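Worked example (supplementary).
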Amino acid sequence: MMEHLLEVNNLEVKFKLRTGGLTAIDKVGFTLDKGERLGIVGESGAGKSVTGFSIINLISKPGYISDGEIIFEGKDLTRVSEDVLRHIRGNRISMIFQDPMMTLNPVFTIGEQMAETILAHKNISRKDALEISVEKLRQVHIPSPETRLNQYPHEFSGGMRQRIVIAIALLLDPAIIIADEPTTALDVTIQAEIMELLLELCEKNETGLILITHDLGVVSQVTEKIAVMYAGRIVEIGSTENIVANPLHPYTRGLIKALPGSRGTGEKLYQIPGSMPNLTEMPKGCAFHPRCELAEGECFTTVPELMQRGNFRRLAACHKV
Amino acid sequence: MHRENRLVTINKLVKKFDISGGFLDQLKFENKKIVRKKTFVHAVNDVSFTVNKGEILSVVGESGCGKSTLARVVMGLYKPWSGEIFYKDKRIDNLDNSQMLSYRKKMQMIFQDPYASLNPRMTVKKTLEEPLRFHEPSISNSEIEEKVMYVMEQVGVNPNWANRYPHEFSGGQRQRVSIARALMVDPEFIVADEPISALDVSIQAQILNLLMDARDNFGLTYMLITHDLSVVEHISTRVCVMYLGTVCEIAPVKNIFSNPLHPYTSALLSAIPKPGAKKKEHIKLKGEVPTPIVLPTGCVFHTRCLYADERCRQEIPKPMSYDNGQSYVACHGVEEKRI
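After joint prediction of all chains, the assembly is encoded as:
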């Protein structure tokens, strides 16, 4: 069997609260191969961002990784020292965040911020670092990158800023990019452009991509694999094509059926009743059962395992599949 | 369309915001002289359209295109710079506050963020009672109570929770409460400004269904402001596409989605990602939206349009009617039949 680029097994992240513990993500596992693109979808609070952050151990207190392993290039990232992690962050695995205005430092020029990233990981001269920066800016289609390098973030539009953030993420040719809602703050026409750019660059450099989003439309056009998260767990994982065409888990099915456009104009949309449970008051058994039409018997008592169900070539966590 | 079908008519509406600041900020040095210059944001430029009874007119466009400003001007929350707004046959943009009251009751608004638009210190019951007490002071307490219970039931919020505060509700429930507040005074016309974009995906369908049910049960007419084109396709009867404060195209929803005429509409439609659909080539626009402070000459879209020629750079296109008068498009290229 080929070794995976990234392997996450049984990952569990907890938050210590005054009122007791809270499990933000529970038994999450997936793999990513070289150049593969995985989408993590779910509602806010489903644990998708926590999953993304925990890969490079960016969980801040009171949160901590309580169990599981994250194997990247032969190392278990949950066990390595902070020094090793620092060498991986931004270098081998980089991250793109939602709001480019928050990610870029407003008091430094783009060039300084880019050079800083390179110099943190590579022993080269500042001049060479700036040269690499210009090259990367050109790759993300920023016009006249040499002059742009000396400008501050506020001198760029939202779309341009997000491209700069992508350029920074690509600076050291990482093996994996984790993009957390990279286009949510942008307009539709700009969103399409940014996604296309990200896709093109990942394909060209064979970079793995973990795309965290709530937008099923975006995910289905960019990724090869989808993991659907609900209340801290992966409820279904498989190839994008299969999941979109034939979702197994009732939650995934509901999400796809509820999209406007899945039924005739003006007809009532399918709706999932209720809303996601609070993580501190998780229902017994399957977390989705209070909203599920099919729930019966063991759904109320036992948490379903994420495993292959029937002859379907993907994993689902549901007793009724 | 028949005249009697018109509910709200907007005629040559213009809204500018003066951002020139104080007197000293306005002074500029030009040709060795000090001149006083005002700076404006041109949010809505010469917009005209009609909302007919019972329809859902969606206004779409990117952020900053003036769609929310348009909604607020129509509601009377901003005074228009010039132009006219009619409710049925009565001009309402020049009324004073007391004359406007009876129209305020007929026109209600639903806002984007249910976390910001509900008063955190008022119980749901108080929030819902307030508009009714204000508009109909003579109504008795028991009647108000009855109405609150009825409307809460209609929007799917358990009436037993009337004495709870907004923070005790989830986002979707809060949006139901703000819809209930709009419905309390039996309005005829509702302006909904991005009513679902702050909500989670699994909740969005619930609220869209509620809006459609409310239209049928209360006989409402909507003007829906949104940037989400798949919602537009599902819910609206007509669509108005805006770019930089100007209307590019108004057409029935079928025509817009099957045969968009304006090049901006085509670009916007090609940008929606749809699950399941094979990736289609999206039409790439040049550059980014120009600032509304200095509008481009001629057609506002010419700086990004793939088909722009000399005429587009010089002359502002007028809306012309197409498809037997169902659609209006402002584009020289469409008029000359070269697009």
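Two points are worth noting when inspecting this output. The mean pLDDT of chain B is 89. Chain B is about 30% helix and 25% strand.
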